[in-house]
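Regression check, zinc ion case 280:
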Amino acid sequence: MNRLSLAVLATTLFFGLASVKPSSDGNPTEIFGGATRFVNYKIFGKKYAKTPIYNSKLKGHAYYIVSGHGGPDPGAMTKKGKVWISEDEYAYDVSLRLARNLIGHGATVYMITRDENDGIRDEHILPMDKDETVWGGKSMPLNQKARLNQRTSIINKLYQTNKKKGYKKQRVIVTHVDSRYVGRKVDVFFYHNQNSSAGKSLAKTMFNTIKTEYTTHQKGRGYDGVVSSRDLWMLRETTPTTVYIELGNIQNSFDQKRLLIPSNRQAIANWLALGVLKEG
Ligand SMILES: [Zn+2]
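Current build output:
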């Protein structure tokens, strides 16, 4: 077989598979296409440090990714078998996957809350730890208000610097895995500052994208997420456009399926990135 017919066969196989299982949610390259090059980022951990760059659609954008809680505060907790699992570890894992996807499209991304030795983890149970820090290396204060203030101060300072550098768009994405609706499945909720039309627009686009993807990949499942404004510190005190996302309720067994299965966490991160790309 010559090289051309090999290529044709490969293409047929690829699209043949693709039509059986449309865009496998957990595989970013099936959604974003092939990588043109790779850049190493230690924060993603050994397995994922090598970061694929697909294109430069988000060039000139800066993203500040903040996963909820961390350090002395694990956030919502629940017992899985004999072990305790906590919100901060799952929000962080999805956040890393999202950050990696955004970098892959040429964005400048800051992991504001960070864990230097965790990286992206392909496990169901993500062990709890308390060694999370913030961008710049400082540890997180115990007091909640001081902790949130630490995050917004870092973001707002970076915002001014990057504004001078000529960044076109700067956005904050906050992720949580606890919910006001304890005891029921909540799907994914998006919140924005009520005075921010850009925040509302981004939240709506991300919401609609994830809703469409759910309908495509899990027919008959239904989806009851929501977009609304909320008066929260991270929405009120941040200078850049901010979207606050609740990825589910870690205490709800239905939501746990989405959060504990690594390929599901990747799928959510892919769909969130797709939403950002749609908003442009
Ligand atoms: Zn939370």
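Comparison notes: Helices lie at 3-20, 28-32, 87-103, 144-164, 197-217, 233-236, 253-260, 262-279. The CA atoms of residues 114 and 137 lie 9 Å apart. No diff flagged against the previous build.
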